[in-house]
Design a protein that fits this description.
Pfam family, one: HTH_30
Radius of gyration: 31 Å
Protein name: PucR family transcriptional regulator ligand-binding domain-containing protein
Shape: elongated
CATH architecture of the largest domain: 2-Layer Sandwich
Structural class: alpha+beta
Largest sheet: 5 strands, mixed
InterPro entries: CdaR-like_regulators, CdaR_GGDEF, PucR_C-HTH_dom, PucR_C-HTH_sf, PucR_dom
Strand content: 15-25%
Strand order of the largest sheet: 2-7-6-5-4
Organism: Neobacillus citreus
Family: Belongs to the CdaR family.
Number of helices: 19
Length: 543
């Protein structure tokens, strides 16, 4: 097969533009198929690149959504729209669909014949299949069968090492060893040997790039003196890593060269297969979040099934939550920042033995679903560690972690998410350093404000605080009141925090007391002021 990105590098496809779903360009194209009818999914098997002029593309939003969902269920490799006659541009819903599920959405001018595109892709697919079969035919049948059935890099390493009776290594793009297999009774210092060979290999790659020559996936002699060979592994034109055959005292014969080339082709297939598996898992994650957020009534019946498909460890503790940024709710400004945070959260889940789950971006929200073993203190401690690590690496987008209550069954995740969502406006103005925030610690606030609309919140706040205090002229007094409340109305601490003289603070307090008609020393007054400040972010939800 050929990936979408590789297909776009064919000269016959030079006029095609990627409009969305760039992260899915490594999806493999099993076949290219032109269609002009709305029930094409009945004729799909998966992995097709679909081509359409848009003549029959649904104008009804519901039908369009149903059509796209059908494509998703078959895991198509992409959609190409010919624009200029029936469509002036790619349908917005298709662009959104492609970006959400990493399915490339492509655009070509209407005058480009589909037959030209499909012919080029199909010829390349067939040529690759023929080449692989020719390589396999040159191998011992038993070895070809075993390599073809190998489902991991280490298995490929072990089969090659056993058959060729020498050490075999797979390295990545920065020459880090990923897998290795050394025959029994073979003595070799792998770090030392690779240390001497890698510079020679790197120079060879650099020379090819300088001469603008492609890096071919073929066996290269690295050192004739030590009988070392390497096969560069390319994926979509990019150097991914290398397959090494290291000194064994035996020369590699012409008959054995196809073994390494065949193994290299299989390793590349494995990498692409793993990437596609990641995309399928992401689709499952998004489906899980869609039920959690969009259809909470249906979620309990679906949660168990989706969680099982994703392979999350079964645990007695489950919770859902959100990660927010800045006091004004703005997330990272660039998609790159969002992806960086996402990767950091995923790495934390992977590295924390007691925790499983997911962190995913859904409708511009960072949503967490976690299962964990141990008590509540464990998850609070680990989330605090994650928050501190993110704060260190991203000063401009300090996160606020807001979690619902821990539940004893996965079917209650929707309830945990609703609690986190209700908690957002209550704690949004608070300091990030005080988090993570758990709904269980804000039960009283949730009972008072949890179901309150922004209009009701604003109405109650205006009953407690006069308009003058909330006006532009009263800004300095309002900020002073907020500082006092955060420090339990300790005047000395407030003066230091605001860097003002005690007499200045005294004057401001007197002015505030005139406006609210009560003494800030009153316990009752202090209580209602805190209520009003709690309502601040809630009342702003509708603005």
């Amino acid at each position: 097969m050929i990936t979408v990105k590789e297909a776009l590098q064919l000269s016959q496809l030079s006029s095609i533009t990627v409009r969305s779903g760039q992260k899915g360009l490594y999806r493999r194209v099993r076949w290219a198929h032109a269609f002009e009818y709305d029930d094409v999914q009945h004729f799909l098997e998966g992995g097709e690149l679909l081509l359409t002029s848009g003549q029959s593309w649904p104008k009804d939003k519901e039908l369009e959504s149903k059509l796209l969902e059908g494509y998703l269920s078959y895991q198509i490799s992409g959609i190409l729209f010919a624009t200029g006659r029936y469509l002036t541009k790619c349908p917005p819903a298709a662009l959104e669909f492609g970006e959400k599920y990493a399915i490339p959405v492509l655009e070509a001018p209407y005058h480009v014949p589909f037959v030209k595109i499909t012919h080029a892709i199909h010829i390349e697919i067939m040529n690759r299949k023929i080449k692989k079969r020719e390589l396999a035919a040159q191998l011992p049948s038993k070895l070809a069968k075993e390599l073809g059935e190998a489902n991991s890099r280490i298995k490929v390493c072990e089969l090659l090492s056993e058959h060729l009776n020498c050490p075999v290594v797979i390295s990545d793009s920065v020459n880090k060893v990923l897998e290795q297999s050394v025959p029994k009774e073979t003595s070799i210092n792998l770090p030392e040997v690779l240390g001497s060979l890698i510079p020679i290999f790197q120079k060879s790659l650099s020379d090819r790039l300088l001469d603008e020559r492609p890096i071919e996936t073929e066996v290269q002699v690295i050192s004739e003196q030590t009988n070392a060979f390497v096969v560069p592994l390319q994926i979509e034109g990019d150097f991914w890593g290398a397959l090494w055959l290291l000194p064994s005292g035996n020369d590699l014969t012409e008959e054995q060269l196809p073994i390494l080339e065949f193994a290299a082709a299989l390793l590349i297939d494995q990498v692409l297969h793993n990437k596609e598996t990641e995309l399928k898992n992401r689709q499952l994650r998004l489906e899980l979040l869609e039920f959690l957020i969009e259809n909470p009534q249906e979620a309990p019946a679906i949660m168990e099934e989706k969680v099982q498909e994703l392979g999350f460890s079964r645990s007695t503790n489950w919770l859902a939550g959100l990660i927010l940024f800045d006091e004004n709710k703005h997330g990272p400004r660039e998609r790159e920042d969002m992806d960086k945070l996402l990767a950091e959260c995923e790495q934390w889940i992977e590295d924390t033995a007691e925790v499983d789950g997911l962190c995913e971006i859904y409708e511009n929200q960072f949503v967490l679903i976690l299962s964990f073993s141990g008590d509540q203190n464990l998850i609070e401690r680990e989330l605090k560690r994650l928050q501190l690590n993110i704060n260190k690496s991203s000063q401009e987008a300090a996160p606020v972690f807001i979690l619902g209550e821990t539940k004893q069954h996965v079917s209650s995740l929707a309830e945990s998410y609703r609690e986190a969502k209700a908690l957002v406006p209550i704690v949004l103005y608070k300091s990030q350093s005080e988090g993570p925030y758990f709904a269980g610690r804000f039960r009283r606030e949730l009972l008072i404000y949890g179901a309150m609309s922004s209009d009701r919140a604003e109405q109650l706040r205006n009953l407690i605080l006069p308009k003058e205090l909330l006006s532009e002229r009263g800004f300095i007094f309002y900020e002073t009141l907020k500082c006092l409340a955060s420090l339990e109305f300790n005047r000395e601490s407030a003066a230091k925090a605001m860097h003002i003289h005690r007499n200045t603070l005294r004057y401001r307090i007197e002015r505030i007391e005139e406006l609210i008609g009560d003494s800030l020393s009153s316990t009752s007054c202090q209580f209602w002021i805190k209520v009003a400040l709690d309502l601040e972010s809630l009342s702003n939800q509708g603005s």
